[in-house]
């Protein structure tokens, strides 16, 4: 903290605080391989703010697409829960292109905004979640999601720092490759956001493949197929990623709404390649 000329402590100015945010995030990323930068930025956000953990999720249109990075396992599980449910503060922030601040998930009104997500979050020991949209050119490309184990709102100062951190994370993720020297840039062409996107989407590549299979099997659109998988995951208390894996290895086949779902479809349709079977 800066000290004034009289020797007494004083609150840092907004420009000083903003410089500290930028310096902290820049220092966290310095010298790291591109694939390691996103998680380092999440850890830096935790250092800057009175929160327990942080994650960054990628948006596709108006929905969560994948988890980019997480500071810890709880942050990762929260992000996966929202991806599975298609609901939660992260999803709301993407839809509204505005910050969504849930101060206390154990009581109204926050507990009632996303009741299923709130229940799962509290089961993980999380009582407050703050989701801030990441934006470029007016488009929401993802969210910075912060959580903590205790309830309570962010102070105006903390929210200001969180928004600066959000801006810095967006800038760093989109422009970090510019920090390499010329030789490194030449040898690392394409490294940066594109490689991080590929790495993060690899975690959910099975979901995309399974969606395609369900689309063909049940003659559904992509969103409808994903909704069916989410419903199955919710009913079984699992993640949509786990359901997708079972679909791909053919131990689960989602049937039509009138037929119901078959758990042993893999045995009946061992040779099925994703095409509609005889009916």
Descriptive account of the structure:
A hairpin with a 2-residue loop joins strand 4 (128-136) and strand 5 (139-148). The chain is an alpha+beta fold and 279 residues long. It has a five-stranded antiparallel beta sheet with strand order 2-1-5-4-3, with helices on both faces. The protein has helices at residues 14-29, 37-48, 73-85, 89-96, 110-113, 115-123, 156-175, 182-187, 193-202, 205-218, 222-236, 240-248, 265-268; strands spanning 53-60, 63-70, 100-102, 128-136, 139-148. The chain is built from 13 helices and five strands.
SSE layout:
Layout: H1 14-29, H2 37-48, E1 53-60, E2 63-70, H3 73-85, H4 89-96, E3 100-102, H5 110-113, H6 115-123, E4 128-136, E5 139-148, H7 156-175, H8 182-187, H9 193-202, H10 205-218, H11 222-236, H12 240-248, H13 265-268
Antiparallel strand pairs: 1-2, 1-5, 3-4, 4-5
Short description, anyone?
With 279 residues, the chain is α+β, with helices and mostly antiparallel strands. The chain is 50% helix and 14% strand.
Mean pLDDT: 76
Radius of gyration: 21 Å
Global structural class: alpha+beta
Morphology: globular
Total count of helical runs of at least 4 residues: 13
Unreliable segments of 5+ consecutive residues: 1-7, 176-203, 262-279
Strand order of the largest sheet: 2-1-5-4-3
* Sheet with the most strands, sense and barrel status: 5 strands, antiparallel
Q: What sequence of helices (H) and strands (E) makes up the elements?
A: HHEEHHEHHEEHHHHHHH
How much of the polypeptide forms β-strand, as a percent range?
Answer: 5-15%
Give the % helix. Answer: 40-55%
Q: How many E strands? A: 5
- N/C terminus separation: 72 Å
């Amino acid at each position: 903290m800066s000290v004034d000329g009289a020797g007494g402590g004083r609150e840092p100015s907004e420009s000083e605080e903003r410089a500290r945010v930028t310096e902290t995030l820049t220092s966290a990323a310095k010298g790291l391989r591109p694939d390691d930068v996103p998680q380092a930025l999440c850890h830096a956000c935790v250092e800057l703010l009175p929160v327990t953990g942080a994650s960054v999720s990628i948006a596709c249109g108006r929905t969560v697409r994948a988890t980019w990075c997480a500071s810890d396992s709880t942050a990762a599980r929260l992000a996966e829960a929202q991806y599975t449910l298609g609901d939660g503060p992260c999803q709301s922030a993407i839809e509204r292109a505005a910050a969504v601040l849930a101060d206390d998930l154990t009581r109204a009104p926050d507990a009632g905004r996303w009741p299923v997500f709130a229940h799962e979050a509290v089961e993980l020991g999380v009582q407050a979640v703050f989701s801030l949209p990441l934006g470029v050119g007016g488009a929401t490309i993802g969210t910075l999601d912060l959580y903590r184990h205790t309830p309570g709102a962010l102070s105006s100062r903390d929210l200001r720092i969180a928004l600066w951190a959000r801006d810095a994370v967006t800038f760093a993720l989109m422009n970090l490759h510019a920090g390499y020297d010329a030789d490194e840039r030449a040898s690392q062409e394409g490294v940066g956001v594109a490689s991080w996107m590929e790495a993060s989407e690899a975690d959910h590549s099975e979901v995309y493949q399974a969606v395609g299979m369900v689309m063909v099997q049940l003659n559904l659109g992509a969103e409808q197929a994903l909704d069916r998988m989410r419903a199955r995951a919710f009913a079984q208390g699992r993640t949509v990623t786990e359901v997708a894996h079972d679909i791909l290895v053919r131990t689960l086949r989602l049937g039509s709404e009138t037929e119901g779902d078959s758990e042993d479809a893999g045995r009946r349709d061992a040779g099925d390649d994703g095409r509609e079977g005889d009916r």
